[in-house]
Amino acid sequence: MFIGHYAPAFIAATSRKAPPLAVLVVAVQLLDYAFFSFALLGIEHYRMVPGFTASNWLDLYDMRYSHSLLGAAVLGALFGLLVLAMTRSRAAAAIAFACVLSHWLADYIVHAPDLTLAGSPPKLGLGLWNHPFAEHALEVVLAFGALAFYARRTRAAGPRAALVLALFAGIMGLLQMTDWHGPRSTEVSASQPLLALFAFTVLAVLALLVQATRQNRPS
Predict the structure, then answer these.
(1) Is 194 helix (H, G, I), strand (E, B) or coil?
(2) For residue range 157-190, what is the model confidence (pLDDT) as tens digits?
(3) CA–CA separation, 186 and 181 (whole Å)
(4) Contact by Cβ (8 Å): 95, 15
(5) Helix spans in 14-131 (H)
(6) Sequence-separated contacts (24+) of 171-175 with Cβ below 8 Å
(7) Over the range 108-142, which residues count as b (16 or more CB within 10 Å of their CB) and which as e?
(8) Phi then psi for 30, rounded to 5 degrees?
(9) Which of 57, 76, 91, 93 could be bridged to 100 by S-S, CB 3.0 to 4.6 A?
């Protein structure tokens, strides 16, 4: 799952107790930020295996830290503490923690069994990636449905608000289409994690623009 991970961020951002949208956009991808950074450092590992799943070739055989449930909880707690220090709001910290943890739960639905509870077997995952039509539909409905919900629950705070929101949606869709239909290789190289980290950061920067042009509606 890629853009479907952003659904909890869009929904949570409509709460007046939540941290800013850009913070939540980072939170929901924090586990993948960690994994691809660890992959670059040789701490965690993956392979590219043709046909490993019907949706992609990623054999994520070593994600013991970033994608164990325990690791997700630790990363979520650390991120929540950072938000608490920034906002002095326990509610904002709790929402940020929940958004980080949502990544593991969403991955459990789509991944082949490669997730763990605490870094060692059993390996978990329901394998929806092996059913591309259903997985792609779920991804689109989650991401764009939640973005539409965010748009309805907020109001424009400037003349460019609609354009900025449309730009975010367009870039998000383009990145997802690239992930689905872009060229594939069996070679593992630094370009793959770097590209993923770049994509996550582009959406985080765009989220800054979105939050700057929208306000929550009055209760």
Answers:
(1) helix
(2) 888 999 999 999 999 999 999 999 998 899 999 9
(3) 15
(4) yes
(5) 21-28, 30-41, 69-87, 90-110
(6) 171/202, 171/203, 171/206, 172/3, 172/6, 172/143, 172/147, 172/203, 173/3, 173/144, 175/2, 175/3, 175/199, 175/202, 175/203
(7) bebbbebbbeeeeeeebbebbbebeeebeebbeeb
(8) -60, -35
(9) 76
| Interval 118-138: pLDDT, tens | 999 999 999 999 999 999 999
pTM of the model: 0.95
Closest residue by Cα to residue 21 from 92, 85, 103: 92
Domain total of the chain? 1
Return d(Cα 55, Cα 179) in angstroms, integer. 10
Host domain of residue 140: 3-216
Q: Diameter of the chain by CA atoms?
A: 53
**Residue at 28: amino acid letter:** V
Rounded distance, CA 110 to CA 5, Å? 11
Q: pLDDT, tens digit, for every residue of 34-87?
A: 999 999 999 999 999 999 999 999 999 999 999 999 999 999 999 999 999 999
